[in-house]
Design brief:
heterodimer; A: mainly beta; B: 116 residues; six-stranded mixed β-sheet; globular
């Protein structure tokens, strides 16, 4: 079955450490997204990518970085500059070029905590 | 930028009662609208979407939503709640219809509790 795989499911970060969250999709979708979810705040967009080797900042990109070297993969790095990284991170994808009416499909998330 | 307001961060109903979750959007031009459901420690699952074909949209699990342009609303309803409906529900609005970015703007979510 096609879908989005996020790993690991749980991740712990030490002070000053960078960590990378994996997101892989086999849906053949061009567009991919990273969201951060905090209780009571909904989903906030970190980064998004519409095509390989291209990505744009979302609303809360500071302290995060991404790459898009392959269509299937969109890893997110939480850097030491992100002072409050504890959150639930969700990756999503959608087919592009079909207008804004196509819904996004989501992975099952990675929960990041500080040690 | 678009914005979405979900009235009520928590809604509690008895099993078998009507479920009503409220969503209002800010756009002056009717956008695309979506309702998603999230179970604990899982991702979001699409319940239904409005793309202008019909103002009353039926989704999965017996949910439906009605688009009301005059009220800029897209409230989610289910006639009879089931224990398995307990989850968090998110309303989302797309960018302008002419955009190809596919970006969504999410409400803060409504936690639905169903009492036996």
């Amino acid at each position: 079955d096609g879908g989005i795989t996020q790993s690991p499911k749980y991740l712990f970060r030490k002070e000053g450490q960078n960590v990378t969250l994996s997101c892989e999709q086999n849906l053949n979708h061009d567009a991919m997204y990273w969201y951060r979810q905090d209780p009571g705040q909904g989903l906030r967009l970190i980064y998004y990518s519409q095509i390989v080797n291209d990505f744009q900042k979302g609303d809360i990109a500071e302290g995060y970085s991404v790459s898009r070297e392959k269509k299937e993969s969109f890893p997110l790095t939480v850097t030491s500059a992100q002072k409050n990284p504890t959150a639930f991170y969700l990756c999503a994808s959608r087919p592009s070029g079909q207008g804004a009416g196509q819904p996004q499909h989501f992975g099952d998330g990675t929960r990041l905590s500080i040690l | 930028a678009q914005s979405v307001t979900q009235l009520g961060s928590h809604v509690s109903v008895s099993e078998g009662a009507l479920v009503l979750l409220r969503c209002n959007y800010s756009s002056s031009v009717p956008p695309y609208l979506f309702w998603y459901v999230q179970y604990p420690n899982q991702g979001l699952q699409l319940l239904l979407k409005y793309t202008s074909a019909a103002t009353l949209v039926k989704g999965i699990n017996g949910f439906e939503a009605e688009f009301k342009k005059s009220e800029t609303s897209f409230h989610l309803t289910k006639p009879s709640a089931h224990m398995s409906d307990a989850a968090e529900y998110f309303c989302a609005v797309s960018e302008d219809r002419g955009s190809t970015l596919g970006r969504l703007y999410f409400g803060r979510g409504t936690q639905l509790t169903v009492w036996p």
